[in-house]
Structures are given as C-alpha cells and as structure tokens.
Amino acid sequence: MSGAVRAAPRRPAGLRRRKHRRLAAVGLVLAGLGLAVGLFLSAIEENLVFFRSPSDVLAAPPPPERAFRLGGLVEAGSVERGGAAMAGARPEIRFRVTDGANTIQVVFSGVLPDLFREGQGVVTLGRLGPDGVFRATEVLARHDETYMPPEVAEALRRAGHWDPAQGAPPPPAGWNTLNPRGGGG
Amino acid sequence: METQNTALAPDAATPRASWHRFANPGRFLRLTEGAMPWLWGAALLVLGAGAVWGLWLSPPDWQQGETVRIMYVHVPMAWLAMGGYLGLGVVSIVALVWKHPLADLTARELSPVGAAVTALCLATGSIWGKPMWGTWWVWDARLTSVLVLFFLWLGHAALVRAFDDPERGARAGAILALVGLVNLPIVKFSVDWWNTLHQPASVTRLDAPGMHVDILLPLLVCAAGFALLFAALVLSRVRAAVMERRIRALELARARRAEAAA
Q1: What ipTM goes with this model?
Q2: What's the pTM value of the predicted model, to 2 decimals?
Q3: What is the pLDDT of residues B128-175, one digit of tens each?
Q4: Do B98 and A6 make contact, defined as CB atoms within 8 angstroms?
Q5: Contact A37 B213 (CB under 8 A)
Q6: In chain B, what residues touch A41 (CB-CB under 8 Å)?
Q7: Does the beta carbon of A46 lie under 8 angstroms from any beta carbon of chain B?
C-alpha cells in the first residue's frame, strides 16, 4: 500500500510553483499583519496599560478631575483603619501605594477584597486631589504569580527569608521544591 | 515553516509521500479507528487522576486558600485555547497552501471545541477573579485579548458554515484563522508588555516555575488530561465529519442514478 503511494507520479512543475507562491503569500500576509498590529499597539500603548505606578503619576500628574487607576504594593505599616466619618457611613481606610521608588497616599471607604494586606499588589480607581492624596472609589487586589502551600510560606517566614508585608516572595528556585516537613528550610 | 517546506520539496520524494499519506481521509479513518478508544480511555484516566490530585490531595495556597483549585481548570483551558488556536493556524496554512480536504475538515471541527474551552477559561477566570481580585471582569490587556480570542473562535466556527459551497467557507475561515494568529502573541505577552490586573505567567518563567511542586505537578497532570480530552473530542468530530461527507456523496450518487433510471 505504502509502496503504491511512494510510486505516485510527481506533481507537474506548475502546480509546485503555485504552492510555493501561495506559501509566500501566506508568509507575507502574516509578516505584514504582524508589523501593522505591532506598530498600532505601540502607538496606543498609553491606552493599553491598566494602571499607572506612583512614579508614572508623579512624573506626569493627570488633571485633578480625571479618574485613573493607580497600582503598586500596599506599603508595609501604612494601613490605618479609621472610624466612620458619620453614623451609617462606611469606615475610612488610609494606606500608601508604593512602587519602591515613590509612594502615594490613598483614602478609600468601601469593601476591600479578601487579599488586601500590607505588601499585596493593589489597583485602585480614583482621582488625585490637589493635596496629593488619591481618593479611591474602588480597590482591587493584584495577586503575584507565585503559589505555595501554607507550610512553605510559614517556613520561609520563620527562616527570615521572606516578610510578606514587604512584597512578593524571593525567587521561586529557592522554595518551589521545599519540603517543610522534611526538616529543610 | 521553512523546514517543513524543504521536507516537502518535490525532490525529496519519500518524506513528501509519507507526510501526504495522513491527509488521505480514508487512511485517516482507518488509522484513528483503533486509536480512539485508547485516546478516550487515556483522557478519562489522566483527567480522573488530575481531578483527585488537584481537588483533594494537593495543598491549598497560603493566601488564596481553597480557591486556588479553580486554577486546575482555568490554566489548562487557557493553554488549550491558545494551543488549539495555534493548531487552527497551522491547519489553515496547510489548507490554503496544499489544499488538503482533511485540513479544511479539521479546521471546521476544531473551532467549536476551541470556542468551548475559551469560554470555560473566561468563566473560570471570572469566578476566580471575584473572590481574589474583587471583581468579575476588568478591561485589562490580558482579559480583553482572551475575549478577542473567544470571538475569533466563534467567528471562525460561524464563517466556515455560512456558505452554501463548503470550499468557499473553508477558504474564508482559513484566512480569518490566519489573521487571528496575530492575537496569540498579544494574549501570551500582554501581561509582560503592559500593566495588567492579571498576574504574569507562573509556569513558563525564565528562571523557575513560581509554583510549589505540590501545586505544579497536579496542574500539569490536569493539563495533560484536558489536552487528551481536547484531542479526543476534535478527532471524533473530524471522523464524524469525514463519514458525513461520504454518506452525502453516496446519497448524491444514488439520487443521480435514480434520476437517470426514471
């Protein structure tokens, strides 16, 4: 059976040339399209970022009436949970958002996501007041790309390798095969 | 593409012939017939093992708790949505350049399954996002580009079925699939190129996976199980489509004979 296929007559040269031409056309279309989309995306990059870091905001402060998203880590030791301004109102919470280089004070009253804590990534939506305080109407938690069992996190903390309030854990090569019950760590 | 092309060069008669053998629908049916029960069996076995490992035996995450188990469905669906689309792109190029009828049929039967896994990826992501991020949906670059991927799958499935002449439908669908390939690197690298709410990749990092092995291994088993299930579903659909075409051809021939006899 396979012998019969192998002995099949060769295709005429015109057909072969047409195939090569179609392959070249497909390659050209893909390359052209990729280039066009790449240029387009880099031209509208400003609109593609979901949030701005404190450094971005301080370098080019948006007008006070414009709402935007501010993102970064909740600075260690900066969270103050205040009382309600008046009876029935939601308690106000104050914290600072940092990117390591700059920080911005944030004020928010509303429901915080469960993952909110010091050292956690957050994205807040709101306006920057003339006093430099960011008044947020929404706070979302931004999870980092690491996953570990509670015992491993505990072992890293006990060994002094990681303080979650300071931000993301150390490079995963140091802990992603750690066995906390095996006496390691 | 280059190496494939040289391997298929008409001067190299043997590799060309052996490669083309699999494009013969009759041979495809015979080859896959014996493999299908094994493929379904392997898919269910691996998926069952992955489900038990992922949902019961694996540890919770230190801060997400049990919610992290959504990942054992969400991440395999995301990988299949993208990997499946890459497959759609490849069969579309084969269909456009070499005009293999089996490539057209595969593309046609791939897109409904691809749309389903992408929908599951979006749905599980949303269910995961609400308790962890605090929102069902945001218009960040990752989520938006995956939504575009979902519409590309749906659009392809609809377009190939929108023509009376199936060959014209297949051609239009192949061109759409090719154009949509541009979206794949955008989905993959959106989390690196722009600020997003979605976190960057955990498994395919340059240094080491950002996951503890006790979470990574069940994830890989679940991904293998879902990939086998995806392959079994698509192959079953292509086999059914080949048989459907044969039945249609036979009925047409019979109708013609009856007409001639009358």
Answers
A1: 0.83
A2: 0.87
A3: 999 999 999 999 999 999 999 999 999 999 999 999 888 899 999 999
A4: no
A5: no
A6: 186, 193
A7: no
